[in-house]
Amino acid sequence: MKSDGKLIRVDLDLKSAFNSAKHSWLWTILEGFVVPDVRLLKAIYENSSMRIQVGGLATAAIQLDTGTVQGSTLSPLLFDLFINALLRLLVLTGISHEVKSLLEWNHQAFADDLSLYVSGEQDAQLLLDLVAKFQDWSGLKISIRKTIVTGALYGSGAAGRDRKASETGRQQATAGSKRSFSDTTVEMQEGDEQDLVIDGAVEEPRDRLAQARCRTCGKKKGPHLFGMDNPLSSCLECTHAWVPQGIRYQNELLKTVHGKTATCPMGVHYNMWLDSDSQRTKAIDGAIEVVAYLHKNEDLRIDQALKVVSMCLPPILAFSGPLVQYPAADSKTLTAIWLRAYKNAWGRSTATGLLTFPKEQGGLQAELPLGTLFDATWGNLH
User: Fold this and answer.
1) Which of 365, 267, 241 is nearest to 322 (CA)?
2) Cβ(66)–Cβ(79) under 8 Å?
3) CA dist 151 to 62, 158, 351, Å?
4) How far is CA 331 from each of CA 158, 280, 281, 284, 379, rounded to the nearest angstrom?
5) What pLDDT, on the 0 to 100 scale, is given for residue 198?
6) According to the model, what pLDDT value does residue 297 have?
7) pLDDT class for 275, splitting at 50, 70, 90?
8) What is the C-alpha to C-alpha distance for residues 7 and 158, in angstroms, rounded to an integer?
9) By C-alpha distance, which of 226, 346, 338 is closest to 291?
10) Is the model's pLDDT at 196 over the cut of 90?
């Protein structure tokens, strides 16, 4: 992370990326990269056509001058070469994220996802203006409505804002505003105040239930750490945090979200502090949905239910797993949910040992979260 300063990320949404590239500019880019057999590729595309059939009648032949062939194994490579021209233009600007102890770069790209990383609003605007020029030239389209700007302040500036939020929280607590929210207050029965044992036992859960979840960072905090005017919105720390402003694309103001709000660049949910709690929650919720589906559809055959498990549970972890750290508690929760899914598939009375034991010892050796994470991580390394 930066020792002091700003870090801004712009997540660009490419609209119908594979279908937007103009063929004429695609050939120009390929020739510029000295790709062999460009004439052959041009001949394939220029002599290809399509027809739309409705009710047994087909239209006249339709020739397309944009996009790559759907389903062709060559199409992703052609698009990679096409978008690589934009990525090289971004590199040539010399603009960087300016994070210390890291190589200088200003973007990340995967398939049709593109994120820009800069140290200030002005640099972000320069890169976005360059992307807009490439869009006008190439036909690549950016969805302004889905493009998101987020950022984080580090160092002395962030420390100052945190101190201000903490001071406000202490002042509210001292002034007696350390209150319980109406929908979470635990009422003590009359007479419990005389019983010190019971009073001590209920104190901790009462304090825990009195907390509310911040709508921005998603953390549970005490009532005194929220604003007096809107206690069920963002916490004081998030309210005082810095947020980038005034960044535009083609003169249209882009949507800005708080740095502690989880977004989904490259398909993984995390915030600017690399907190991936949101991604872990989605993995757990997704596994619970599979269990609920199997419980509701008890009439499925065993092979059908196991097919649901094998097709739905591993993909929840396989893509994001290598990028997200799962604490022991979350890993234990996921394992319990997966075992419940297998039991719903095989029969609820199935013993856990039968599911987890190796096949050599007579077990079913069911695939569990830890094994899925290991396979996904090893696959990325390999």
Assistant:
1) 267
2) no
3) 46, 12, 49
4) 33, 9, 11, 9, 20
5) 46
6) 93
7) confident
8) 12
9) 338
10) no
Instruction: Indicate the Cα dihedral angle 121, 125, 83, 42, nearest 10°.
Output: 180
The pLDDT tens digits of the residues spanning 116-131 come to 999 999 999 999 999 9
Rounded distance between C-alpha atoms, residue 47 and residue 62, angstroms: 11
Per residue in 102-119, pLDDT (tens digit) is 889 999 998 788 999 999
Separation in Å, CA 251 to CA 140, 166, 254, 313, 350: 18, 38, 9, 43, 62
Distance CA 315, CA 366 (A): 15
109 sits in which H/E element:
strand 107-110
Look-up of token digits 């009710």: 55
Flag whether pLDDT at 77 surpasses 70. Answer: yes
DSSP state letters, 261-319: S-B-GGG--B-TT---HHHHHHHHHHHHHHHHHHHH-TTS-HHHHHHHHHHHHHHHHHT
DSSP 55-78: TTEE---B--SBS--TT-TTHHHH
Amino acid at 222: G
- Dist. CA 355–CA 366, nearest whole Å: 6
The tokens for 187 are 């009422």
What's the full length of the chain, in residues? 382
Are 196 and 182 in contact, with CB atoms under 8 Å apart? no
**What is the C-alpha to C-alpha distance for residues 356 and 11, in angstroms, rounded to an integer?**
41
CB 201 within 8 A of CB 192: no
End-to-end CA distance of the chain: 28
Average pLDDT, the chain: 82
pLDDT recorded at residue 339: 93
Q: Give SS3 for 241.
A: coil
pTM summary value? 0.74
Residue 369 DSSP code:
H
